[in-house]
Design goal:
With 130 residues, the protein is mainly α. The chain is built from seven helices and three strands; from the N terminus they run ααααβααββα.
């Protein structure tokens, strides 16, 4: 049996992975009502940080172990293209590069330089067409 927090996290994860699904389909999948799905998507997640939260200058600590770019994107909501640009500009050091891509092969990033860039990061505001 799944707790409320776990169910809400699952709902948010499904919505992030499949944004085009209607909420009724998500409700059927997780075995909850449409109202519960609406409430789960309204409340802020307890763990991690979402892109909208980063504009509030909240800090995000990635720890002291090397971490892959894909994991940083999942945890922080910072686009992979932004992290890639930091690496290209040598603002974030690469600790391990397998030289090829494939399942289980990750480029590991230096947590110290990555944390410095995350602390400086401010997402661009979306422009509203006039």
């Amino acid at each position: 049996m799944m707790g409320t927090d776990e169910r809400n996290q699952m709902i948010r994860d499904i919505r992030r992975a499949f944004p085009y699904w209607d909420l009724g389909k998500i409700a059927d999948l997780v075995g909850s009502t449409l109202a519960e799905v609406h409430n789960a998507l309204k409340e802020k997640p307890l763990s991690g940080i979402m892109r909208s939260d980063m504009t509030d200058n909240e800090t995000f600590n990635i720890g002291n172990k090397p971490i892959s770019a894909s994991e940083v994107t999942k945890r922080t909501g910072i686009p992979a293209s932004t992290i890639g640009m930091w690496v290209k500009r040598n603002q974030v050091k690469v600790i391990s590069d397998p030289g090829q891509t494939g399942p289980g092969l990750f480029v590991l990033l230096d947590p110290v330089t990555l944390q410095q860039q995350i602390d400086k990061y401010k997402p661009r505001k979306k422009k509203i067409a006039a």
